[in-house]
Design brief:
28% of the residues lie in helices and 29% in strands. With 276 residues, the protein is of the alpha/beta class. The protein has two domains: 135 residues, Rossmann fold, CATH 3.40.50.2300; 101 residues, OB fold (Dihydrolipoamide Acetyltransferase, E2P) (Beta Barrel), CATH 2.40.50. Helix 2 packs parallel to helix 3 and helix 3 packs antiparallel against helix 6.
Amino acid sequence: MGSRRPSCCLRVRIEPYPKNGRAGDMKPIRAIIADDEEALRDHLKTKLLSLWSGLEIAGEADEGETALRLIRELRPDVAFLDISMPGINGIDVAKHAIGRCLFVFVTAHDEFAVEAFEREAVDYLLKPVTGERLAATIGRLKDRLVSAPVPDLSGVLERLSQTLPKAPGHLQWIKAQQKDGIKLIAVNDIYFFRATDKYTTVRTREGEFLIRKTLKELENELDPAQFWRVHRAAIVNARLLQKVDRSIAGTRTIRFKDLPDTLAVSRAYTHLFKQM
């Protein structure tokens, strides 16, 4: 078969395995990665290639339909599927591709998701993926590729579809700049966003980081029930507020849990804190 490059994915080579076997062939083990956030795909890919000698990342997808097409066209051994993707989610992708490959589901840290996956004995990874956890998953995958046929997960996937809560449509991760590269930060760990001249500062317990998103973009992408605009130059994580001080003049100052920083609330947003 000639090589061709699907329009919605990166660096794809279509080389089907011979019909007479999978793990016994000399060809490398092949995988695809599906996640709608490029930084998270790159993070997982880098760790996979560093821990799994002979693995080939045959394709990448940023949404469910593309992931399903890659599974059908590339016939990978393993598919790493983000649970929350535009269009069809990772569970539904697997339901439409049962028997074609092994699946590892990637999810944001959620106690309900973790409990569901462990109860069904399905491989999963928590974001951001750690080397120790990934190494254990790789070990299990290698054993299954050598010793067992691809399992029929029809019943398991159906139960997971009914059990797992619907994934939120809001921004879950921020890609921040560091001296030595890119840092992935869960938005739940961010105390506040503050605009500077050219960048936006992200404040976590670890320190400050810079991102290129504007506050206007963040306001549209973050969950408004959790992240509140309190100033034209600041958005705060309401879950991490400790208290709001009020001066004699009526101005309000935000104090955070386990953080010495404070932020002033502009008059246009004081109505958010009338009950505090």
